[in-house]
TrEMBL record:
PROSITE patterns: ABC_TRANSPORTER_1, ABC_TRANSPORTER_2. The keyword Calcium does not apply. SMART domains: AAA. One of its GO terms (molecular function) is ATP binding. It comes from the Bacteria. This is ABC transporter ATP-binding protein. Residues 1-221 form the ABC transporter domain. Transmembrane segments: none annotated. It comes from Photobacterium atrarenae. Keywords: ATP-binding, Nucleotide-binding. InterPro entries: AAA+_ATPase, ABC_transporter-like_ATP-bd, ABC_transporter-like_CS, P-loop_NTPase.
């Protein structure tokens, strides 16, 4: 990025039908990795995606949900969702495309907002509508940057279940940047833990989430446990002395 190297020696493979979370501290290169996969930042090395026959996937097969920024767009909610079909739209929006957008909104429980101004929605509602936009084109590669950052618990579960189910049903390659380690463990098949621009650990939630690795990467003493259903959860205990004062922010 400019003359600054953000990521180094990233060697990762993402498989169709797998939901992968990218984890790691702030400023460590997670968004940059998604942007490199989208071809949005200059990078050396290669990012390649293949279809079932081994041919390269076209850019139109990718969908990218960027980090939440409150938008002042004058478009209505349904217009924002239809933009997700931008590669298929012509001068006229067909009734079928409009129906597709309504179905997508219905699936996310947002149909009642269809004619509202996108700018006047809450942050969480804008995030859900943006997800509808990302999904409507049935992407084969779905890149989600903190898709649940503005959502309450119910909507976090809804979004992560939807992303997981979509990934399996459509054999999509789905990669999401997440900060909630327990949610990542609950919904993702694979975790990729980044720190200082490098992959520190990757694998199943059980492989990646352990006290030693998380304490080292986040500088926080944590307790990694298993709930009665067998899911991994991470509870923070305290900042480690090497992390500095809790009053000093970044
Ligand atoms: N447009 C930019 N120009 C220059 N440097 C940038 C730019 N965007 C990001 N960076 C730098 O690249 C590094 C990685 O940023 P990135 O946004 O990828 O981190 P991140 O892991 O996604 O962080 P967060 O969890 O805070 O969203 C940071 O040091 C950041 O300052």
């Amino acid at each position: 990025m400019g003359r600054k190297t953000v990521l180094e020696q990233i060697d990762a493979t993402f498989k169709a039908g797998e939901f992968t979370a990218i984890l790691g501290p702030n400023g460590t290169g997670k968004t940059t990795l998604l942007k490199a996969m989208m071809g949005l930042v200059p990078h050396t090395g290669k990012v390649r995606a293949y279809d079932e026959s081994g041919g390269p996937l076209s850019r139109t097969a990718y969908s990218y949900l960027c980090q939440l920024n409150k938008s002042s767009s004058e478009l209505t909610v349904i217009e924002v969702v239809l933009l997700g079909l931008v590669h298929q739209l012509s001068w006229r929006i067909t009734a079928a495309q409009e129906q597709q957008a309504e179905t997508m909104l219905q699936e996310l429980g947002l149909l009642h907002l269809a004619t509202r101004s996108f700018a006047h929605l809450s942050g969480g509602q804008q995030q859900l509508v943006s997800l509808a936009q990302a999904l409507i084109g049935r992407p084969e590669v779905l890149l989600l940057d903190e898709p649940t950052s503005a959502l309450d618990l119910k909507h976090q579960v809804q979004v992560l279940e939807l992303a997981r189910d979509y990934t399996r049903q459509h054999q999509c390659i789905t990669v999401a940047v997440l900060h909630d380690l327990s949610m990542a463990a609950r919904y993702c098949d694979r975790l990729l833990l980044l720190d200082q621009g490098r992959v520190q650990r990757e694998g199943s939630p059980n492989d990646v989430l352990n006290n030693e690795t998380l304490s080292r990467v986040y500088q926080v003493e944590v307790d990694v446990g298993y709930c009665s259903q067998g899911h991994t959860y991470v509870t923070p205990i305290r900042l480690l002395p090497s992390a500095g004062s809790s009053k000093q922010i970044i």
